[in-house]
Every structure is written in structure tokens, then in C-alpha cells.
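REQUEST FORM: STRUCTURE PREDICTION
Request ID: SP-0412
Submitted by: Lab K.M.
Chain count: 1
Length (residues): 149
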Amino acid sequence: MLVVAAALLLGSGMAHADDYGADSGDDAKSQSQLMAEAAMARGNWAAAAPLLEAHIAGHSDDDEAIAELGHVYAQLGDAEMALQMLNSALWMNARSLEANLYLGEFYVSKKDRAHALERLAALDQICIFGCGEYRKLKKAIASMSASTQ
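STATUS: Completed
RESULT:
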């Protein structure tokens, strides 16, 4: 976790080598990020975290991976790191669909309706004609409201 925080603070404009040593100055995903996404799809959050941390150590400007890591930390119950990563991703890209969705879901899990609605409003502005992230967060907020009645 310390490596991730240091990478986020230092940042770098240089192209980085991915896990195979290839120049990753383009938008190609690294092997560790692909493996992390596969672990996330299986719900294996503990396996996904170090893979995303490794990816971010070499790609400190990848707001999507940082948002994914925030989501993973949330799933692992580490609220402090989840918020740190998700807020970092939003700071880097306020229009990030993933960061807005995951932060909204985080607030739903904490039963913080006001902050969840803020993320929904942000997604509404980003997704002019609607998008899956907006619909997913709207449904989560609706289920939160139903369960508190």
C-alpha cells in the first residue's frame, strides 16, 4: 500500500514498462491489471489488490486502475484506503465513470444517501444519454432506500 501511495504522490510523465518489459506509453493494459480484473470478476478481492498495486506502481496516472483499487479496498473492508484511492482517481479525472460509480457504491454501503446521490448527480452529468454506471448506482440507492423503510 505504501508503494501505491508513493507512486500516486510522485507521479511520472515517463512511459513505463509493463510486466513484459514493453513500452506502455499507450493505453494498453498491463498483464497485472488484466489479471486483477479477472480476479475482481471472480470476487477474489484479496488476489486483485496486490495485482492492481503492482500495476499502479508503474502507471501512477491510470485513474481507472486507481478507481478499481479503491473498489477492491472497499470490498476488503478497508474504508480509509478505499476513500483515498477513489478520491485520488476523481482528482485525476472528475469524469471517471468507474470512480464515480465505486464511490457512490461505497457511500451506499455506508448508508450515506446524501453522498451517494452526489455521485449519482455527477454520473447524470457525465452520461448525457444514460449509461450502465448511472443505472447501477441509481438501483443501489433505490435498494438502500427500500431497506431503510
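NOTES: Residues 1-26 have pLDDT under 50 and may be disordered.
Reviewed by: T.R.
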